[in-house]
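Subject: for your reference before the review

Hello V.,

The reviewers asked for a structural picture of the protein, and I figured it would be easier to keep everything in one thread rather than splitting it across files. Below is the amino acid sequence we used in the manuscript, unchanged from the supplementary table.
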Amino acid sequence: MALAGLCTLFSCIKNNDLEYDLIECEVLEFKVEGQVSSFISKASRTVTVTMPANTDFTQLTVAQFAITPKAVSSLDIKPGTVLDLSQPLSFTLHVRESYEWTLIAKADAPRPATGAQLYNMSFDDWSMDGKTWNCFADDATDEQKTIWGTANSSLTQFGKDNSTVPVDDFVAVSGEGKRAVKMTTRLLDFFILKKLAAGSIFTGRLGDISFTTLNADLHWGVPFTDRPVSLEGYASYKPATINKAEDPYKDRMGQMDTGHIMVLLTNWAEPFKVNAPATLVDIDNDPAIIGYGKVVFDKATEKYEPFSLKIDYRSERTPKYVVIVASSSALGDYFTGGDGSELCLDELSFKYE
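And here is what came back from the structure prediction:
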């Protein structure tokens, strides 16, 4: 997956008593045919493309290349251009000032055919604590109880129904004891306040709940040191029209909702505390993110359909944590979504080859 940078206006330059904006020239998009992944670092002005082992780095064909509008590149690069990246290749981008960028190619690290999975990725095991559904079995160990979190208890404390629940009458793989997880977005009335609550599930735990802002701390991430190639599973999505939107997505009112599932592999020092929308993970720029992938669900389905979420790696570091987050409203962190949007997931698993 090609990653994007931004063109930022930093300051003004004075030349012969005329001031003009200084435009920092950047690579916005770069992709090579057959790549495993590519990563654009604005901070170091490098583009690193990871290729399968035994690739001939002297014959890499460019699939996508885009730079800051109006910028001129010292290299004539366009789709179809064949590059020799057996050594780092430097070039300049220029509008009024020049900026040196470097293209780097590396071989993908060997991965084992098999690797670790997480507890209850099938979503078969559930238990009740009062009125709250928990995604672990009654006899789960203390460690297993820390794998999957939801915001269910924050809703039940306000007298609301669970937004993330097990279902046994709509599963991808049938059999005795088989279940799936269903997440539903709800528009809730809290006295005079209307609040959107997206159904979601994540690896980690629910933290403190604010009774004044109606927000909750979500501690994303559970210990994990493997490097899977992808996350696979089954999904069914039934979107509703967005009928509650807050800044900066008020323009989405009346549009069809979308759901998503996302994976992060990181070497954070500890789980990341999310308190939306004030504190969110900076997916594009957080240097602790080692691997990332996401699938967006934007079409209604009557049955489960398989999906494969490819994980793009930005470095060869060993992860410390894995985050899996799924939501019935992709913009739920911004309290934007459609009342009644419903996402069901079943039989997740990491693939290693």
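For the response letter, the relevant points are probably these. The first strand starts at residue 9 and ends at 15. The helical segments are 152-156.

Happy to draft the paragraph if you're swamped.

O.
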